[in-house]
Amino acid sequence: MAKGKVGKTVESLGDYLREQRVSAQLSLRQLAEQAGVSNPYLSQIEHGLRRPSAEVLQQLAKALRISAEQLYLRAGIVSPDDGVGGSVELAVLGDTALTERQKQTLLDVYASFLALNSGGDTN
Length: 123
Hints:
Elements: H1 8-23, H2 28-35, H3 39-46, H4 54-64, H5 68-75, H6 86-94, H7 100-118
Helix pairs in contact: 2-3, 2-4
């Protein structure tokens, strides 16, 4: 496989996307067209070379008729053990009034607060 992988989460996301695409009997070109992304970009996602934005994940989920939350989990945007944080993250990701950059910034700040609080700080 390629040496310049973005990370294990993205690689498993790519594998998962490929499995879903094949089971939906869609070619790479068909899925790319339905999701509104380029063929090379989708191919890079499937090979673990690119990390898609939450918006692209939503478009892919819609085209594949699967849960966007599943893709967020696979991409590492939402953690499966987020009994506390999952709904906040999904709300931020689903807010159409925010740009992708604003969403990512809010998620980063939220994650830093959770990390700070889990360290025992109760201030």
